[in-house]
């Protein structure tokens, strides 16, 4: 993780993807969306969200 990496909360990712809570946790659980745990808090690095979106766009274009 680089020094400039921002960490997003699950509600922030929900808003950006316009998905529900369980859908975001399913993406994390199936390792489609990388995340880290800090104590009991789940955080998603911004680059992981960007990579997820890019991968999905590439899959749609193929």
What would your notes on this structure say?
The chain has 62 residues and is of the alpha+beta class. It has one domain. Helices cover 53% and strands 16% of the residues. The chain has a 3-stranded antiparallel beta sheet with strand order 1-3-2. 11% of the residues are buried. It holds the Pfam family HTH_17. InterPro entries: HTH_17. This is Helix-turn-helix domain-containing protein.
State the helicity in percent bands. Answer: 40-55%
Number of domains: 1
Dominant shape: globular
The major beta sheet can be summarized as: 3 strands, antiparallel
Mean pLDDT over the full residue set: 94
Strand content: 15-25%
Order of helices and strands: EHHEEH
Low-confidence stretches: none
Structural class of the secondary elements? alpha+beta
Organism: Streptomyces marianii
Protein name: Helix-turn-helix domain-containing protein
Domain Helix-turn-helix: 7-56
